[in-house]
Amino acid sequence: MENKGSVTSSLKRMIGYMASFTSGCRYCEAHTIRAAERFGAEQEKLDNIWDYSTHPAFKENERA
């Protein structure tokens, strides 16, 4: 995934993790969450990923 837009590489991977979890793909879950870490996702965001719409670690543009 190239990073030509305003969505960061780590956020793309976090979105991938949520989609993988929702669809029940444990293999994809494991790889997308680790990729998010490698691309610089903050631990606080990873810990609160399911509360992204209200948690203060997430910026307004990340909640859209």
From TrEMBL:
Protein name, UniProt field: Carboxymuconolactone decarboxylase-like domain-containing protein
Transmembrane segments: none
Domain Carboxymuconolactone decarboxylase-like: 4-48
MF annotations from Gene Ontology: peroxiredoxin activity
Entries under InterPro entries matching the protein: AhpD-like (IPR029032), CMD-like (IPR003779)
Stored Pfam families: CMD (PF02627)
